[in-house]
Design a protein that fits this description.
The protein has 476 residues and is α/β, with parallel strands linked by helices. The protein contains 13 helices and 15 strands. A hairpin with an 8-residue loop joins strand 9 and strand 10.
Length: 476
């Protein structure tokens, strides 16, 4: 992922770039960045045969998969690669795929050096570092493909939604099922009245997670930083901690300061379509009903969270209950049958070979009919036989999530998981994570954007104070 560079060489011409950690280098860098910001963005104006010039922030692990998917559409030209651990084993595959593409260890240097050379940015970095990259990119009129969840705090997400509106860019969150069968089916069934008057949803993710079995009494002890890694840059806008390998390469998901747990990781793959097409918006109450192994540092071993959404026009109030943890299984209808599992969806990356009692999914309780579903783009099924003879046709997707984004960059489609759509979903999950962190029941005022019954929780909406040297991203 992107971070602070000590020395970068442009592989096109070999020019060395200023070191932003020195006073002179930082001054030169900021002058260049401000000059770039002052240049009006030229919208992508190519023909349908042209490719979107794409800069990639984060090139290993999940980010590598994103780059390959975007490249496979045939609609993108990869023109820049950026990672704070450039050359580490997990980055090698992408470096070999694109050996002649310029490489950077600092996204700010990439923008300063090549800002006029790309139209869009993919962001496949850890959750906490989506925000500064996305804000800088949008402020320069760059289109954004950003992994889920959008940001680390309620406030960051709010600012990202505002930037999408202000700079009029295509911004797609990477919950790829939002361009697959479940998206079109859910909309068609709501429009036809098959799914109606939903008052309860059960959503569950009971797979093993990285923090299961962990017991911590504080943060991890300092260790020597690997030679390839720019730790300060990796930290970006997050709360700084001394380096420990227990924070990197996916293990950041375990920690409140860096990740968003099972809810932030999989919620956007499980109840995203229900959130959009049932117009859930933001809840007025979020309750930590059950927390096993509560910790102020890492996510609980199991949690049950109740999200209570108010009446929306003619739609009735709705309670969405989230279950995570190996042994925290949700109640299921007696005729539930077999879970829905899409074989094309990869399981979580750690502990995924262990047997699990129930694959990730959901149950949706509507008037007369109850539905079960899996995750990502897998289709719903009706539990029981009622209603199966009145199902409307479901249109096929005209493009997968990656092609949809790139076509939106070219003005040919609209992002299906734009920040306007994905932002409230991520903010609802952010409220759930605050309830987990504090083991609390929260009353939330959606109009005022405040938690009204818990001072500490309300402060967490803001996230940590902007880190010194990174304040500017909150002002773009």
């Amino acid at each position: 992922m992107a971070g602070r560079l000590q020395l970068t060489i442009d592989h096109n011409d070999g020019d060395m770039m200023a070191n932003p950690s020195t006073k002179t280098g930082r001054r030169q860098f900021m002058q260049g960045a401000l000059a770039t910001l002052a240049v009006p963005h030229l919208a992508f104006a190519g023909t349908s045969a042209d490719k979107v010039r794409l800069a990639c922030c984060g090139i290993g692990n999940r980010a590598a998969q994103i780059i390959k998917e975007l490249h496979a559409t045939g609609l993108a030209q990869i023109v820049a690669l950026c990672d704070t651990d450039m050359g580490a084993p997990h980055t090698v595959e992408i470096l070999k795929m694109f050996p002649d593409v310029p490489r950077f260890s600092d996204f700010r240097q990439m923008f300063d050096k090549m800002g006029n050379g790309f139209d869009a940015v993919s962001i496949g970095t850890p959750d906490f570092s989506h925000f500064p990259i996305a804000m800088l990119a949008m402020s320069q009129g760059k289109h954004i493909y950003c992994e889920k969840p959008m940001g680390q705090s309620f406030r960051q997400i709010e600012l990202m939604m505002a930037a999408e509106r202000k700079y009029k860019v295509a911004a797609q969150m990477g919950n790829q099922g939002h361009s697959e069968a479940n998206y079109f089916q859910f909309k068609a069934w709501v429009d036809a009245g098959i799914i109606r008057n939903v008052r309860a949803i059960t959503a569950h993710m009971n797979n093993p997670r990285r923090w299961h079995g962990m017991k911590v009494s504080g943060y991890l002890p300092a260790q020597s930083v690997p030679a390839t890694l720019d730790w300060d840059g990796w930290t970006s806008t997050a709360v700084p901690h001394p380096y420990n390998p227990g924070y990197i390469n996916g293990d950041w998901r375990s920690w409140y300061d860096y990740g968003n747990g099972a809810l932030g990781d999989w919620g956007a793959h499980i109840f995203d379509t229900a959130h959009e097409f049932l117009h859930l918006g933001l809840p007025t109450e979020v309750e930590a009903v059950r927390l096993d192994g509560h910790s102020p540092f890492i996510f609980p071993q199991a949690s049950t969270l109740a999200f209570r959404f108010p009446q929306r026009g003619t739609l009735p109030p709705l309670e969405l209950t989230w279950y995570d943890g190996l042994n925290n299984l949700p109640p299921l209808p007696k005729d539930y049958g077999a879970a829905i599992v899409d074989p094309n969806i990869p399981p979580p990356s750690k502990g995924s070979n262990q047997s699990i009692a129930l694959p990730p999914g959901k149950v949706i309780y509507g008037d007369e009919l109850t539905f079960k579903g899996g995750t990502h783009g897998s289709e719903l099924s009706i539990i029981g036989s009622a209603g199966k003879d009145i199902l409307p046709p479901v249109p096929k997707s005209p493009s997968n999530h990656f092609a949809n984004f790139l076509k939106a960059c070219k003005g040919e489609e609209t992002c299906r998981s734009s920040f306007a759509v994905a932002g409230p979903l991520c903010q609802a999950m952010a409220l759930g994570i605050i309830a987990q962190r504090l083991n609390a029941k929260l009353a939330f005022d959606p109009a005022a954007r405040k938690i009204t019954n818990h001072k500490e929780a309300n402060a967490l909406l803001e996230g940590p104070a902007p880190r010194k040297g990174w304040e500017q991203y909150y002002r773009l």
